[in-house]
Amino acid sequence: RVFAVANQKGGVGKTTTTVNLSACFAERSLKTLVIDLDPQANATTSVGLDPRGLDASIYQVLLRDIELDEIVEPTMIKGLHIAPSSLDLAGAEIELVSAFSRESKLREAISGAVADYDIIMIDCPPSLGLLTINGLTAADEVMVPIQAEYFALEGLTQLVRNIGMVQRSLNPGLELTKVILTMYDARTNLSRDVAREVRAHYGDKVCWQVVPRTVRLSEAPSFGQPITLYDSLSKGATAYRALAKEVLRGTP
To answer: CA angle at residue 121 from 181 to 178, to 5 degrees?
Structure first.
């Protein structure tokens, strides 16, 4: 299955969710590929790679017709691989405007690789531009991490509208299947109220497992490790393992 992890709002735990869920899938012996579509390359650094030291990235795949398998790198977790990002990707939005089949570049690139992996996770940038549209066009399903805060639903409404647009014109099989509450603080009324409101709007698409707000989850990327390596017994690692199990129950 191919999942796009998307939210046009920044700071909602999108990359954290992509990397840590992928690490949990790999722990369960599922061969997993992370595609880092974000020019900030946070998913790339979160698995211990330095984008500045790489010969090629997903940029060359999208705009220079390099094969995806030529840029895929192994990580420190067995079964977890990454198609890294780089700063070059920052100019891709502009370059893609004039490209042939510009919305489908990623789908074409991964078509030959889908059979090689059990799960592909696409970390989309925090915007609704051409890179995110490429991610949505290439995916079977969309996961949306949202922070348990007051304006959570506001951004989600616009994203759902865009997913519908991609469904109608580019990818009829695309589905929003998972909404994930992140940075959840069970001690606050706000987190509980937001969770209640999100569940009222999106029903069983909202995962029951929430991701707590923890210092260890925030620290792990700076050490270039998923939480399952950085602190395997932490609340964050436990939450993402449970979330991976919940996601897989809904995966054919």
So the answer is: 35
